[in-house]
Amino acid sequence: MSSTTERQYTRDIEAAGEPMEPGPDFVRDVDALGTLNITEDVRLADGARQLTLNMGPQHPSTHGVLRVILKLDGEIVTECDPIIGYLHRGTEKLGENHRYAQVIPWTDRTDYVAAPANNLGCALAMEKLCGLEAPERAQYWRVIMAELARIASHLVWLGTHALDIGALSMSLYCFRERELILDLFETFCGARLTTNMMEIGGFSRPIPEHLPSMVRDFTKVFPHRQHEYATLLSANPIWMARTKGVGVITKEAAISYAMTGACLRGSGINYDIRSAMPYCVYDRLDFEVPLGTHGDTYDRYLVRMEEMRQAIRIIEQCLDAVEPMDTPLMAYESSYVIPPHKGSMTTAEDMQRHFIWVIKGFSPPVGEVYVAIEHPKGELGYYIVSDGSPQPYRFRIRSADFVNLSILPHLAQGAMLADMVALIGTIDIVLGSVDR
Amino acid sequence: MTDSTDPKRQPPEHPHPEPPVAPDSTAPIADPEGLAEAVAHPTDPCVGGSQTEPTATQEAAVAAGHELANVEAMVGRMDDSGTADTDPWGRAAYVDEEVERHPAVRVIREHLPRTIVDLVRFRDETTVHVRRQDLRAVCAVLRDDPRVRFNALSDLTAVDMLRLRQNPRFDVVVQLYSLANRVRLRLKAGCDDGQPVPSLVPLWNGANWLEREVYDMFGIVFEGHPNLRRMLLPDDWEEGHPLRKDYPLRGWREFPVYNQERTVDRVRTRWTGRGPS
């Protein structure tokens, strides 16, 4: 035992005899914390009471720092006002002040539970602006990493969503499997969360030799684990009572609110960018796009569960195609791509090229592109305006969950207070991506 | 630390104070066929009036979800076969190098003959510059015309063109997507500082937050927006609009430097090998 602990203990005993100092005012403390407290209680003209309830930004079910101000009539929500921006870091402004290759690491920090998918969209947008394309082998590996990120993101969604509704054990299982995916990311690039994986033109790092077999093992293990989740939830009467008929999004509302991703497909509208406007190698892969019929929370749960199964299918097909390949991973012939690091320590010319590319960057042609990919949350679009300088003139991130979250006031109107956590969970938000 | 009274560090005089003033009546929004009124606030089965029994309402909404057959027609698929010459409204016409043959351009020219300012084609993406007053009418035409059906709003943002041209200063950029034809289109409307842009909220509810974000970041006022206030920054933010090009990266505010003396001590520690006493 260290002496520090003993000293602490003695001090506690000494303090026990003294009168306690008055602590901070309890009510004011709750206000400062701002989790779930009543801020206003109004008696309306017709005798009914209207409570104004502040939920968040530290409430555990708001998935970060979302704050929702609710007006309640009894237990029924009459008005809902989400307040966001607590995690705003100005990623778009930062993107305008960095060179193109420096912007990609910032996209990791937007939706941090699916960082490879963010990197993919940004790299594709910059490649389209420069007019180059990554080699085929790199495209396959990009798809594998993006689909692994989809599973990881859906696992976080499933664990936290079920935890909010009351199925505590789901979060333990889901985060257990997510660790396997993070291990794959770590093997691939050395980082687990903010991976900074994709580069303009492909991958400059080699694929580790044992990575394909690791991914193959994961694709064998994961379907059985997912079957366990389904047996726990899909026919669970409590789960169905909390999700069926809750948060119904009609087809018209889904289109009007510009929903994308599982929120749109749960309502039965077939819009998946992977099949509608294929990028990378998705046009060569065989997969299905699951659609819901009722547009409620349960349908969106089913859609996301099926998307994880389809992701495993896609990964298996990509592995079959990419394992025999021995082609380059990087489009080195383009001047927009970082020169190979190989000769930069031995020959002066290679070192100069590498140095100048890193220090000065490159200048793409004048123009503008909008590239959207199917992110786990929905349509992730990058709109880049180039004025011919090494930095983007405008760097816009159209994140899916920012737009999807705007339907929350519509869904909450007339819902029960206890369903608010289900509604926030079913939209699948990550506040880093909402606030950017 | 620089002097905070330095005039260069002060935020410039803002042309329109907040909250936004009512837009002037000298710039009416072109709405020849009353499209905005016709589609404003469509009847939505999810939202009734005041609901006393949420479960019954939700069941009704579930039932209503099965009966929406007209939306099926909106997302029907178009055939990929054919060329721009054989089928002037087919998918091939959208990627034709001749921009004037783009179906959206022809539809806009038909309904609003003088609204197109410029047409740009870059990397297989078409950008249509339209007049600011006509932005909502153009979007309504593109959304409702059965030949093009750009029925989904993908994105709405703005670009500050301060360093690239004299006027108009801003471009409001609207990305449209056609669920039926699977093509994208970009609309741009130039507006100067203080000029109101017609809001797209009557057409798509999803434009609500996107326009609030544009107002927050650029200070562009949208005429007809139901609730135009700041989105990402706090409501009492007084330092202007951060994505404008004349806004410095770290803002105008002087931030206090904490632990400055201690940092100096640490540096000295490394140089002399002796720590602070």
Q: What's the helix and strand layout?
A:
The complex is a heterodimer of chains A (436) and B (277).
Chain A lengths: L2 H14 L9 H8 L2 E8 L5 E7 L11 E7 L2 E8 L7 H6 L3 H9 L6 H16 L5 H30 L2 H22 L21 H23 L3 H7 L7 H6 L5 H4 L7 H4 L20 H26 L25 H13 L6 E9 L2 E9 L7 E5 L1 H6 L2 H5 L7 H8 L3 H5 L1
Antiparallel strand pairs in A: 1-2, 2-3, 3-4, 5-6, 6-7
Helix pairs in contact in A: 4-5, 5-6, 6-7, 6-13, 6-17, 7-8, 8-13
Chain B lengths: L34 H5 L14 H13 L2 H6 L16 H4 L8 H9 L4 E7 L2 E6 L4 H10 L7 E9 L9 E9 L4 E9 L5 E2 L8 H12 L3 E2 L36 H13 L5
Parallel strand pairs in B: 2-5, 6-7
Antiparallel strand pairs in B: 1-2, 3-4, 4-5
Outline of the structure:
The complex is a heterodimer of chains A (436) and B (277). With 436 residues, chain A is an alpha+beta fold. Helices cover 49% and strands 12% of the residues of chain A.
Give an overview in words.
The complex is a heterodimer of chains A (436) and B (277). Chain A has 436 residues and is of the alpha+beta class. Chain A contains 18 helices and seven strands. In chain A, the strands form two sheets. A four-stranded antiparallel sheet of chain A has the order 1-2-3-4. A three-stranded antiparallel sheet of chain A has the order 5-6-7. In chain A, a hairpin with a 2-residue loop joins strand 3 (67-73) and strand 4. In chain A, helix 4 (100-108) runs antiparallel to helix 5, helix 6 packs antiparallel against helix 13 (297-322) and helix 7 packs antiparallel against helix 8. The longest helix of chain A is centred in the middle third of the chain and has 30 residues, at 136-165. The two termini of chain A are 46 Å apart. By secondary structure, chain B is α/β, with parallel strands linked by helices. Chain B has a domain at 31-36 and 69-240: Beta Polymerase, domain 2 (2-Layer Sandwich), CATH 3.30.460. At the A-B interface, helix 3, helix 10, strand 5, strand 6 and strand 7 of A face helix 2, strand 3 and helix 7 of B.
